[in-house]
């Protein structure tokens, strides 16, 4: 009994001793642990709670792409390559095969005029549809304000329109004539621009410019279908309503400038001023105006028309290459197209499994700056 009494007195803790040990390790673990490294807590620095990784997310922002979506995106590379090759084939025909320089420019000018008419008419139709939707929305706003007894605010519908105004025919004609006169005036100068340079240097410069054109081209893949003003969402989502298009953003024109430089370099090797003038104008219409028109058709979701353009240019260039260079070069050219649109998307999808992005509620540190006095 004496031994038990002595053992009890030795293991028992009095109230003052209990209050003194509240800062011990046993009582420190009863406080709430916070995942804040910069806050001084009663825990060790290497302590981790069971909820330490509870809010950790893996690949939450990674988009799973489908094959046909990537096929459509990679086809834009094929389209751009075909446009560049079309310019090279026309130059080869004028330089080596003595083609008539007037025929390509007549064909390209006729197609450019047709595309401009489609562009203007489509813009007017879509702008009128958007104005009708906005007027309907304005009527609803006025009706609701009268029912509630509040004063109706004046609404300027022009600032709500997201469709750009169609270009005027007179201004477009003046701009076109100004460009034509400038090219016609400068064509003798451009033809003799590289007389002191060797032909091998010109071909090397042209090859580098074509490569830079492919690399720096602005491949506009997606056009977001969103509105500038969210209060118009109820009107835009009504039945039989066409999608409201966003404002056309500014895109890079570096590839167009590179294409123009390439056309000027190649035109300096042609035989006559007329050939140089027609070739540069052909390059401007094909490398400068056609990408804008193709982006417009995809922005308006005219997918059938877009694929018609892609098929016409790709197969037309392939057939011209077959007629000019033979079967071997045509097979190599078609193999390059298949490599881009078939193997490229598959390789891109195969790379998805290597994406490992971790996201969590990481708390940033808040440094305390102390003044030194």
Quick description:
With 373 residues, the protein is mostly helical. The chain contains twelve helices and two strands.
SSE layout:
Elements: H1 2-11, H2 15-20, H3 25-28, E1 57-58, H4 67-95, H5 102-148, H6 169-191, H7 199-215, H8 233-236, H9 254-267, H10 273-299, H11 303-325, H12 327-350, E2 358-359
Antiparallel strand pairs: 1-2
Helix pairs in contact: 4-10, 4-11, 4-12, 5-10, 6-10, 7-9, 9-10, 11-12
What does this structure look like?
The protein is an all-alpha fold. It has a domain at 102-147 and 154-301. Helix content is 61%, strand content 1%. It has 12 helices and 2 strands, in the order H-H-H-E-H-H-H-H-H-H-H-H-H-E. It has helices at residues 2-11, 15-20, 25-28, 67-95, 102-148, 169-191, 199-215, 233-236, 254-267, 273-299, 303-325, 327-350, and strands at residues 57-58, 358-359. A two-stranded antiparallel ribbon has the order 1-2. Helix 4 (67-95) packs across helix 11, helix 7 (199-215) runs antiparallel to helix 9 (254-267) and helix 11 packs across helix 12 (327-350).
């Amino acid at each position: 009994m004496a031994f038990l009494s002595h053992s009890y007195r030795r293991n028992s803790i009095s109230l003052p001793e209990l209050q003194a040990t509240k800062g011990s390790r046993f009582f420190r673990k009863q406080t709430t642990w916070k995942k804040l490294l910069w806050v001084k807590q009663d825990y060790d620095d290497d302590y981790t709670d069971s909820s330490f990784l509870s809010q950790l997310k893996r690949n939450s922002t990674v988009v799973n792409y489908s094959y046909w979506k990537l096929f459509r995106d990679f086809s834009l590379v094929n389209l751009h390559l075909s446009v560049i090759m079309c310019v090279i084939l026309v130059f080869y025909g004028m330089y080596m095969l003595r083609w008539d320089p007037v025929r390509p420019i007549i064909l390209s000018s006729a197609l450019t005029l047709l595309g401009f008419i489609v562009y203007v008419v489509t813009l007017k139709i879509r702008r009128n549809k958007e104005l009708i939707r906005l007027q309907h929305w304005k009527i609803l706003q006025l009706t609701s304000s009268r029912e509630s007894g509040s004063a109706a605010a004046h609404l300027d519908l022009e600032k709500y329109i997201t469709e750009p105004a169609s270009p005027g025919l007179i201004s477009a004609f003046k701009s076109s004539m100004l460009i034509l006169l400038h090219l016609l005036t400068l064509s003798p100068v451009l033809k003799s621009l590289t007389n002191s340079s060797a032909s091998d240097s010109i071909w090397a410069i042209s090859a580098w410019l074509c490569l830079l054109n492919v690399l720096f081209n602005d491949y506009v893949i997606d056009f977001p279908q969103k509105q500038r003003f969210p209060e118009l969402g109820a009107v835009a989502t009504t039945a039989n309503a066409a999608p409201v298009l966003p404002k056309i953003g500014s895109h890079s024109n570096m590839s167009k400038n590179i294409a123009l430089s390439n056309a000027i370099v190649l035109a300096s090797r042609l035989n006559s001023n007329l050939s140089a003038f027609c070739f540069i104008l052909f390059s401007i219409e094909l490398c400068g105006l056609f990408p804008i028109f193709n982006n417009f058709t995809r922005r308006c979701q005219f997918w059938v028309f877009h694929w018609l353009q892609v098929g016409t240019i790709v197969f037309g260039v392939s057939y011209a290459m077959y007629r000019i260079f033979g079967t071997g070069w045509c097979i190599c050219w078609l193999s390059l197209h298949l490599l881009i649109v078939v193997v490229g998307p598959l390789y891109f999808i195969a790379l998805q499994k290597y994406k490992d992005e971790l996201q969590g509620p990481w708390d940033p540190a808040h440094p305390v700056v102390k003044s030194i006095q």
